[in-house]
Design brief:
The protein is of the alpha/beta class. The chain is built from 10 helices and 14 strands. The protein has 2 domains: 194 residues, Rossmann fold, CATH 3.40.50.720; 104 residues, UDP-galactose 4-epimerase, domain 1 (Alpha-Beta Complex), CATH 3.90.25.10. Helices cover 38% and strands 18% of the residues. The protein has a 7-stranded parallel beta sheet, with helices on both faces. The protein has a 3-stranded mixed beta sheet with strand order 12-9-14. Helix 6 crosses helix 10. Bound molecules: uridine-5'-diphosphate-4-deoxy-4-fluoro-alpha-D-galactose. The site of uridine-5'-diphosphate-4-deoxy-4-fluoro-alpha-D-galactose has 22 residues, from helix 6 and strand 8.
């Protein structure tokens, strides 16, 4: 297939682009490099710099069989401070991209949605039928896109798949997480272990969980990428399908930090701070539907493997400086 990967210079997008290339697809990356890195775009991919809003102009005359759409703003805290940015980049951007796809005659789309659409769940593990009650504008923007894709699938026969990621970690083919500023737990803890920051703060230890810290379901970025390939194959005209992607097992923040200490051999300086706005207490996925319908099975479910893979890439990147 000829696949357009938006956000292919980002952490997850670059791994998806790499896996597509490895399985014989042709890949074009569209990325405005506002948060992505040009050196993360895999060598075998064509690269177009620009926003998804301008896809119709930037890609005029191109031919694609499918789009994997990952370009988005994805910081929960920023979304609370600046909700308009999330409406503009995530919702309007996707609506423009879908219009461009119509113009180019592209009928398949895989979209990177998020566990954030569920907000504070009333039951875990979370299935795709759980109520969607996002607790921050980031989650609202992802839900608005999921709704937009449902409408588009029924109106214009688009074959769309929304993949609701839980917490992504790990690295693949030298491609690791590299956000500036970094807000995610695993890379922050690894940077602390490497002495790149003095320590870290745990955001709240008074949640109703086993040790008071938030529980998250971590999924290896390579397993996540594999689900995109399976979803592309499954996309069917006129249907919008939704899949949760996680391992079905939750880890508290403290458990993640212990695993980081074990893998790296470092002892972390940890302070306890107040809760972070917009953080649900527990997010654990049921990925039974993805396993059943996409024949998708995570091959790297161990948190230690995710941390080890991310650690190797961080150490190599630090050494290369
Ligand atoms: N955490 C800390 N200290 C830090 C960073 C994070 O205690 O320095 C905690 C958070 O409070 C949270 C957990 O570690 O409880 C995981 O936080 P991350 O920022 O790594 O990930 P989130 O769970 O906030 O975010 C993920 C995705 C988002 C998505 C969100 C849904 O990365 O895209 O889940 O809530 F929106």
């Amino acid at each position: 297939m000829r696949v357009l990967v938006t956000g292919g210079a980002g952490y997850i997008g670059s791994v998806v682009a790499t896996r597509l290339l490895e399985s014989g697809d042709e890949v074009t990356v569209l990325d405005d490099l506002s948060t992505g890195h040009l050196d993360a775009v895999p060598g075998g991919a064509a690269f177009v710099r620009g926003r998804v809003h301008d896809a119709a102009t930037l890609l005029a005359g191109s031919r694609f069989d499918a789009v994997v759409h990952l370009a988005a703003s994805s910081l929960v805290a920023e979304s609370i401070a600046n909700p308009a940015k999330y409406e503009e980049n995530n919702v309007l951007g996707t609506s423009r991209l879908v219009a461009a796809m119509r113009g180019l005659g592209v009928g398949r789309l895989v979209f990177s949605s998020s566990a954030a659409v569920y907000g504070e769940p009333s039951e875990v593990p979370i299935t795709e039928d759980a109520a969607t009650r996002p607790v921050n504008p980031y989650g609202e923007s992802k839900l608005a896109v999921d709704d937009l894709l449902s409408a588009e699938a029924s109106e214009s026969c688009l074959g769309a798949v929304s993949l609701r990621y839980f917490n992504v970690a790990g690295a693949y083919a030298g491609l690791g997480e590299r956000h500036e500023p970094e807000s995610h737990l695993v890379p922050i803890a690894l940077e602390a272990a490497l002495g790149m920051r003095p320590g870290l703060t745990v955001y709240g230890d008074d949640y109703p969980t086993s040790d008071g810290t938030c529980v998250r379901d971590y999924i290896h970025v390579a397993d996540l990428a594999e689900a995109h390939l399976a979803a592309l194959a499954r996309a069917e005209r006129g249907c919008h399908r939704i899949y949760n992607l996680g391992n079905g097992r939750g880890f508290t923040v403290r458990e993640v930090l212990s695993a980081v200490e074990e893998v790296t051999g470092a002892s972390l300086e940890v302070a306890i701070g107040p809760r972070r706005a917009g953080d649900p207490a527990v997010l654990v996925a049921s990925s039974a539907r993805a396993e059943r319908e996409l024949a998708w099975v995570p091959t790297r479910p161990a948190i230690a493997v995710m941390i080890e893979d991310a650690w190797q890439v961080l150490v190599a990147r630090r050494g290369a400086r």
